[in-house]
Amino acid sequence: MKRVYNFSAGPSMLPLEVLEKAQAELPNYKDSGMSVMELSHRSGLFTDIITEAENLLRDLMNIPENYKVLFVQGGASQQFAAVPLNLKKSGKADYVNTGSWSKKAMSEAKKFMEVNEIASSADENFTYIPKIEASMLTPDADYVHITTNNTIEGTAFRDIPDTGNIPLVADMSSNILSEEMDVTKFGVIYAGAQKNIGPAGLTVVIVREDLIGNATEHCPTMLDYQTHSESGSLYNTPPTYGVYMAKLVFEWVKELGGLKGIQARNEKKAGILYDYIAQSDFYASPVKEDSRSIMNIPFIIPGRDLDDEFVKEAQAEGLETLKGHRSVGGMRASIYNPMPVEGVEALISFMKKFEQKHQ
Ligand SMILES: *Cc1c(COP(=O)(O)O)cnc(C)c1O
């Protein structure tokens, strides 16, 4: 069977073990004579799947009792609107601008809120994470929004800012489940599934209970956290197959030692790639050292016009989707949880070969 190392930023690689389990269970799930895709979302079998998915996620992330886990649709992009519609009180919100996804979150929020950009790394092309001090916060802000991992620029918050009594909201789409994270620091965490959780179509929202039930009058029912909270994510048909796949991925993460185990593996993967880039005088990393993502690693070949050739030759060797985002250029290796260490080693040996050829 042909399998490549897929460095796509999302949708991205899934663990082969998970795909094989899904394949084996596909036509006849638990002797029901049906696929999970064909099960009623109100059936006992699906209730078991969604309950188990939630329990596994709670266990992996150590989510406290006073937080709800919602399985919804619409992607992280829909949460850009859902967050202000649920949290709006004074009508002011603080945003940290760390790149493309932050900017999209901000422009959506501007439809509903007075948005204050309290910090930005636009001055250096989003190659670093600005430091957030308490003095920067708007005292009566309804929330502070950050993008914990910047998928396109390859930066990540190494320290989560302390926002005191102001709820901290995080777009964690591209680094949820990649490392240990203290959920109690956040009011809302949201993530599209297609990077570290499962197939596209599912969105996970983790929200503190006191932030539920205060949606603005004109908030659509489907965007109101209360709708999904009080129905156990079964107000309407949830993305059932996505929830099932997420459950299989959560089981896989648990088997690898939970977030502690997966973090060690991710740090090792990112470490060997950054180390190789650092000692090379052919490749360079555009990202400041203290702001580096361990999920998305952009790199460039300074002063040479070799990007297209690199991407093409890598693809011929089973190293897929290494082209950098069109807004940044160069290359980008997205090495989410399912990427094995061997995949990163294969990338490094290709980079060495390519470097030698073009020195
Ligand atoms: C991929 C991504 C998004 C967009 O997610 P959708 O589910 O496609 O809406 C938003 N934010 C970040 C950080 C992402 O990586």
UniProtKB/TrEMBL annotation:
Catalytic activity from the UniProt record: O-phospho-L-serine + 2-oxoglutarate = 3-phosphooxypyruvate + L-glutamate; 4-(phosphooxy)-L-threonine + 2-oxoglutarate = (R)-3-hydroxy-2-oxo-4-phosphooxybutanoate + L-glutamate
InterPro entries: Aminotrans_V_dom, Aminotrans_V_PyrdxlP_BS, Pser_aminoTfrase, PyrdxlP-dep_Trfase, PyrdxlP-dep_Trfase_major, PyrdxlP-dep_Trfase_small
Modified residues (N6-(pyridoxal phosphate)lysine): 195
Pathway(s) it belongs to: Amino-acid biosynthesis; L-serine biosynthesis; L-serine from 3-phospho-D-glycerate: step 2/3
Cofactor: pyridoxal 5'-phosphate
Domain Aminotransferase class V: residue ranges: 4-347
CC annotations in GO: cytoplasm
Source organism superkingdom: Bacteria
Main location: cytoplasm
A molecular function GO annotation: O-phospho-L-serine:2-oxoglutarate aminotransferase activity
UniProtKB keywords: Amino-acid biosynthesis, Aminotransferase, Cytoplasm, Pyridoxal phosphate, Serine biosynthesis, Transferase
Residue numbers binding L-glutamate: 42
GO biological processes: L-serine biosynthetic process
Keyword Amino-acid biosynthesis: yes
Top class in the EC scheme: transferase
SUPFAM superfamilies from the UniProt entry: PLP-dependent transferases
Positions that bind pyridoxal 5'-phosphate: 76-77, 101, 151, 171, 194, 236-237
Cell compartment(s), UniProt: Cytoplasm
Subunit organization: Homodimer.
Family (UniProt): Belongs to the class-V pyridoxal-phosphate-dependent aminotransferase family. SerC subfamily.
Role, per record: Catalyzes the reversible conversion of 3-phosphohydroxypyruvate to phosphoserine and of 3-hydroxy-2-oxo-4-phosphonooxybutanoate to phosphohydroxythreonine.
Protein name: Phosphoserine aminotransferase
Organism in which the protein naturally occurs: Gracilibacillus boraciitolerans JCM 21714
